[in-house]
């Protein structure tokens, strides 16, 4: 059904296939761009799935790559058509990290390191409202409300009854002590984290202050993995004006090893729960 098509994932898969066809032809992105009288950056964006792909783009590229099997051409054309459909998040207008939402929506598992705040998928509404307002002081109330609603809608991936997102979160202890909103908001937020951490597909660990310098010292990042073998893992690093997506195996492997170090340096699951529970009680005083 078209309504179940994830346009972000379709663009990624189509881009990967187009890159494969180009490499089989032994051509560089620059050579293809010259043949089609377009910029090399356009070819790169089409291949990495960051740009919408039209059926005309697919037709032209298949012509350059001399694809003779019409079934392959038709399949790629259909993928291009599907990739131009809109995901649920488009109903909220221009969302800065819409590419990430598309990936998260289709991911099988997600590993997150968060040094400053409780990660978005675990946030309560009051906490999310305070985070969004504090982080975007110049945005309109309407825009901030929209961002909060999108964040809460994303959480359906971890509360789904069937095939929920497998989530592993490493929280820096600082995120537990930073008072966002109010002490009451923090108490409710930490109690919410405790409740969610009881679910079999959600794991929460706390990286304590006493660790000192650690593998995640350079900041927040996430690793997304997908059920379909055709979809490579992605490292996502959120920025203020732009985001970074790393898909090269070497990059993904490096961040994966870093994450394993973070998990090893963190309190175990039970120790983490006890710390979160203790701080939640302190916020209630």
Automatic annotation (TrEMBL):
InterPro entries: Cro/C1-type_HTH (IPR001387), DUF5753 (IPR043917), Lambda_DNA-bd_dom_sf (IPR010982). It comes from the Bacteria. PROSITE patterns: HTH_CROC1. Residues 18-72 form the HTH cro/C1-type domain. SUPFAM superfamilies: lambda repressor-like DNA-binding domains (SSF47413). This is Helix-turn-helix transcriptional regulator. It comes from Streptomyces werraensis.
């Amino acid at each position: 059904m078209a309504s179940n098509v994830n346009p972000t994932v379709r663009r990624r898969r189509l881009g990967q296939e187009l890159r494969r066809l180009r490499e089989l032809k032994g051509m560089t992105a620059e050579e293809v761009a010259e043949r089609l009288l377009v910029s090399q950056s356009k070819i790169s964006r089409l291949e990495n799935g960051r740009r919408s792909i039209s059926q005309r783009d697919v037709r032209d590229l298949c012509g350059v790559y001399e694809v003779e099997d019409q079934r392959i051409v038709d399949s790629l054309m259909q993928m291009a058509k599907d990739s131009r459909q809109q995901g649920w998040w488009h109903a909220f207008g221009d969302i800065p990290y819409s590419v990430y939402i598309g990936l998260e929506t289709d991911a099988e598992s997600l590993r997150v390191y968060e040094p400053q705040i409780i990660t978005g998928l675990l946030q309560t509404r009051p906490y999310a409202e305070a985070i969004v307002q504090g982080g975007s002081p110049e945005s309109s109330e309407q825009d901030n409300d929209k961002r909060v609603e999108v964040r809460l809608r994303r959480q359906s991936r971890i509360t789904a009854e069937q095939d929920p997102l497998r989530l592993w979160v490493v929280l820096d202890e600082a995120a537990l002590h930073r008072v966002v909103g109010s002490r009451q908001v923090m108490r409710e937020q930490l109690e919410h984290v405790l409740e969610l951490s009881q679910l079999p597909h959600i794991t929460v660990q706390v990286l304590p202050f006493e660790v000192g310098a650690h593998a995640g010292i350079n900041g927040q990042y996430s690793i997304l993995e997908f059920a379909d073998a055709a979809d490579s893992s992605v490292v996502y690093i959120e920025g203020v004006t732009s985001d970074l997506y790393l898909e090269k195996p070497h990059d993904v492997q490096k961040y994966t090893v870093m994450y394993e170090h973070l998990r090893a340096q963190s309190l175990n699951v039970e120790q983490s729960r006890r710390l979160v529970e203790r701080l939640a009680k302190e916020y209630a005083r």
